[in-house]
Amino acid sequence: MPSDPRALQNQLLAALPAAEFEHFSSLLEPVEMAAGEVLYESGGQLQHVYFPTTAIVSLLYVLENGSTAEIAMVGNEGILGISLFMGGETTPSRAVVQRAGQAWRLRADLIKLEFNRAGPLLRLLLRYTQALITQMMQTAVCNRHHGVEQQVCRWLLLRLDRMSGQSLSMTQELIANLLGVRREGVTEAAGRLQRLGLIRYSRGRIEVLDRAGLEHAACECYRVVKHEFDRLLPPPPAEAGAGGTGYHGRSP
Predict the structure, then answer these.
(1) Could you read off the pLDDT of 129-153 as tens digits, one per residue?
(2) Looking at the domain assignment, is residue 247 inside a domain?
(3) 207: which of 56, 167, 182, 229 fits an S-S bond (Cβ 3.0–4.6 Å)?
(4) Which UniProt keywords apply (predicted)?
């Protein structure tokens, strides 16, 4: 299909120089992602990479007893399926759509071809991979050393960074499953954050009332992850003042 300006909603695609974007975006296929849809299973052969625009996807580690815990989330800042261009064909994690929305996908053979061209896309994807690894490492540290309330704050902030608006539909049970903690702990944490005036929670919807206060209540893990993404990747188009033209003209 011809290049589509909607692809600029993904920050990695928008970061490509104009000529690279025109070439690369013509290879992409638009897809709709439904909440709960499984894009990859642990150990499964990867057929595509995905560039989310409005969808958000959780990368989950699945234990032998079926329990899961989120190790990272990917939204409009990134790409799903890094194993394909990092030399592997499978991934140990399960990718599940957390928030329904749109994405662009690219066949496995095409992403390998583009990566091996060793152009701007290669450098951009390697820097994103480093940022994603930081998120995974910090998630492991946070789950081991910080309380449920701080984990909930970190998770909410990471989610907000990958969407527009300040409210999200999410049950406490689902948050508990993603964090790998008991639901009672999430209920207690959400109740305290609500009493502090940081969020409003009602019937599976969480509205953030005080973003700055939520950041203050979070542990350093959120700030470490955000700093690494900000350091390694270009800012969103609105911050870059691109006026709808993405980051074209900047060297990634």
Answers:
(1) 999 999 999 999 999 899 999 999 9
(2) no
(3) 167
(4) DNA-binding, Transcription, Transcription regulation
Tell me the DSSP string of 13-70: HHTS-HHHHHHHHTT-EEEEE-TT-EEE-TTPBP-EEEEESS-EEEEEEE-TTS-EEE
Whether residue 152 sits in one domain with residue 135: no
Q: Which two tokens stand for residue 59?
A: 């990368």
Q: Residue type at 7?
A: A
Number of domains in the chain: 2
Do 22 and 35 fall within a single domain?
A: yes
Q: 74 and 135: one domain?
A: yes
Does pTM surpass 0.85?
A: yes
**Is there a contact between 52 and 78 (Cβ–Cβ < 8 Å)?**
yes
Q: Is position 249 within any domain?
A: no
30-76, pLDDT tens digit by residue?
999 999 999 999 888 899 999 999 999 999 998 888 888 999 999 99
